[in-house]
Amino acid sequence: MNIIATKHRLGRIGIWSLELRFGNASEIVEAAAELDELGFGTIWIPGGVGGDLLGDVDRLLSATRKVVIATGILNIWKHLPEDVCAWWLKQSNDRQARILLGLGVSHAPLIGDTYRKPLAAMGNYLQQLSERGVPSDAVCVAALGPKMLELARDRTAGAHPYLVPPEHSALARAVLGPDALLAPEQGVVLDSDPARVREICRQTVEQYRGFPNYANNWRRLGFTNEDIANASDRLIGALFASGTPERIAERVNAHRASGADHVCLQVITGAPRPDIGAARVAWRRLAAGLL
Known about the structure:
nine-stranded parallel beta sheet; TIM Barrel; alpha/beta; 15 helices; 291 residues
């Protein structure tokens, strides 16, 4: 397993984007090509809802030349491992080198009766990928708690935590050890008005507060039930970075000082639906200030 090479390919900073999954196809292709030229190391796209995620990865690979395309995440309940492996094996060596499969167990309230013990399910899924030829350094796990982090450390390139502050990066690094990949997502709002930022971030976090894996992780980090129920200023300030690109850089540096190898930035615009135009403006500002 060549984790060092995987880390090098990902680069220091990536972009995590809803807009590059759900939107006009021609605009997505154009925007992805621009991100590649701006110099971001990795483009991450969500996959929790399922759908043609692998086809969307194909589209982004074809639109770009250098950047890694990562899934954040591929929902293991919505994609059969044999289908993922068949897709992987059809890729050229050059394209395989630009793919990172971030896997996740999603949330019991979303999956329903088919949901079972997540740690065992993830372990079984990883075993099937390995047996069918997907290398472990092309895979990471959306791990939050210690046991899932241990699985990510032992069976994949590492971990891709979501909705976490730098304090979680420190705890994750302690579990992962010095070598495994740690690539947290970091939500950012390029706005310096505290009231607007709080409103945008509260709207964003609303859908996650009821999911036990996120709530339990925040409790492990010292947040109270009241913090979670009310999306307190303390919780919002920990989960999201806001202000100028220079302020965003401070949060990226805090993650890296806590053990992160790569930080993927998700621009939160507050738009009611994915707005690729607004996202592109923000990505350019971030590139100018951070790359």
